[in-house]
Design brief:
Layout lengths: L2 E3 L18 H5 L3 E5 L12 H15 L1 E6 L10 H6 L4 E3 L3 H6 L4 H10 L5 E6 L5 E7 L8 H22 L2 E3 L5 E3 L4 H8 L4 H22 L1
Parallel strand pairs: 1-3, 1-4, 2-3
Antiparallel strand pairs: 2-5, 5-6, 7-8
């Protein structure tokens, strides 16, 4: 399974020195992820596990959403259901060490670290491609927990909602005063609606001009 390592510059882990440990941004690419602090809380390794893994793997692959776990020395990577679902055993670094040393600090990664490092809690977090927390589920009671497929459904719905909002906002651009105005391809529609109430006034003015011209013509005759 892909494990998220909350490493720092002082961490003496070999993961910081290997090219097989990408940053979380690189690992996500354009996708979303579901981070489980304790993934084994959500499954039972029984006789039905093989069939459940097949269904879960297909569901995650179809939606292009990835599952990952927090790194833990006590967790067996090879036996975890996340390894079977995502087929990725790499260690993923929250921050990019090269960027910390030679570039600007990733502020969004720092904010995500603060959310993850809250002490003494078990959680599931849905993370978007920009490293923003989209949904956080915390729990202490291990009974009646949602299944990983339910979290997948929530993530898929949140991503669709975000995509719809982005598409809607593309029809508007800020003007020089910071107000939203229609984009170029939508201008005609909004202008027509804005001036619709003026059409009767224009028509009346035109009729008055026509009558005045007719009266002047009649007087001249």
């Amino acid at each position: 399974m892909a494990t998220l390592l909350l490493a720092t510059r002082n961490t003496s882990s070999s993961a910081l020195r290997t090219m097989t440990s990408p940053s979380l941004r690189t690992w996500l690419r354009e996708g979303w992820a579901i981070l489980f602090s304790h993934p084994d809380d959500f499954v039972r390794y029984d006789l039905e596990m093989d069939r459940w893994l097949v269904v879960t793997q297909r569901a995650f692959a179809a939606r292009r959403i990835r599952a990952m776990s927090l790194a833990s020395p006590a967790r067996e990577v090879d036996r975890s259901w996340i390894t079977q679902v995502d087929d990725d055993k790499r260690t993923v670094l929250l921050e990019d060490p090269a960027r910390e040393s030679f570039g600007t600090v990733d502020l969004q990664a720092a904010a995500l670290r603060e959310e993850i490092e809250q002490p003494g809690r078990r959680f599931v977090m849905i993370i978007d491609t920009a490293l923003r927390k989209q949904k956080l589920f915390t729990y202490n009671d291990l009974s009646n927990l949602p299944s990983p497929l339910e979290f997948l459904g929530w993530a898929d719905a949140l991503r669709a909602k975000q995509a719809t909002a982005v598409q809607t906002n593309r029809h508007f651009v800020p003007d020089t005063h910071g107000r939203l105005v229609p984009a170029a391809h939508a201008q005609q529609f909004f202008v027509a609606r804005r001036h619709k109430h003026r059409v009767p006034q224009v028509a009346c003015k035109l009729a008055t001009q026509v009558r005045a011209s007719s009266m002047r013509a009649g007087s001249a005759a």
